[in-house]
Amino acid sequence: MKKLFFTITNDCTFDQRMIRICSSLAHAGYDVTLIGRTEKNSIPLKEMPFRQKRLNCLFSKGKLFYIEYNLRLFFYLLFRKAALICAIDLDTILPVMAVSRLRGIKRVYDAHELFCEMKEIATRPGIYRFWKKIEKASVPHFEHNYTVNTPIAEEFERLYGKKFEVIRNVPLLRSIEIPEKPERYILYQGAVNEGRSFETLIPAMKKVNARLIICGNGNFMEQAKQIAADHGLEEKIIFKGKLVPEELRQYTRQAYIGVTLFDKEGISNYYSLANRFFDYFHGGIPQLCVNYPVYREINNQYQIAVLIDDLEPDTIANQLNALLNDEKLYSELQQNCLKARTVYNWQEEEKKLISFYSNIL
Q1: pTM attached to this predicted model
Q2: Residues of the chain whose pLDDT is less than 50?
Q3: Domain boundaries, the chain
Q4: CA distance 334 to 330
């Protein structure tokens, strides 16, 4: 049985995307290990159809964390028998490239985003130059690559002349019944990071007669909580932190509206195709979403969201209120969600994933 290793910098327990990928490959007959790290809020690992390994680090963030984690990952991989190692995003690519070269192992790059163009990197010149050097030194040496949508694939090909397959990050299609929703709350799920428009979404909630529940954690969490406090919205903005996938799905099913907002600082956001965009309509939930190319393309097919052209608080509040109060609009979008999920689902995407790896191995 061929051994495959996948490398991430977060906790395996909360990474729905990698749980799907690793499970599909394990069911296809590969011996799969997902390598992540132990975090402060880590819980015991749940049994999965693949192996899981969490590395313990002294540092939890910043340059020292990345240096330490990459060194630990290098030495862990160096002494493991493997047919293939896959680097998930740029922050684990160096040890994967080094070990694969030393050991003559096949390597894959899985780019979930344009890493260097994320707002928290693109707006900091020194950090941007650091990661861009890593990207230029590594990505051209990967012959097997995939990403989550066509614009990102085309950008990588433009930059480095490398072909990237497209494998969308969509949920598993599960049977669904829309539950009764005594509270019409609005849901944001995903990383609470810079560039997700919390600076305007939170103030907008002053004009919306509903609570906003935020499920996730990230580098903007403390600032987001402070914005809520500054606007006197502590009772209206509920921060749940990271949730395991099963618990998160329950919050998604019970929500009334989802939110997918990004600002345009850093083209990674503009070309994004966020996990939550699919999670919402798989839960039968209409959403408020930015009018960026990939979201617009899918919404033109199925009309599952209300798209907005700017991120001003009044714009956000007005459109959230329209979804809350216009029963006809809401019902039409909800029915379209139920249709779209039968086309955009993991059962379809995993065929491409398994074909990609079988062609390499």
Answers
A1: 0.92
A2: none
A3: 3-170+345-360, 186-340
A4: 6
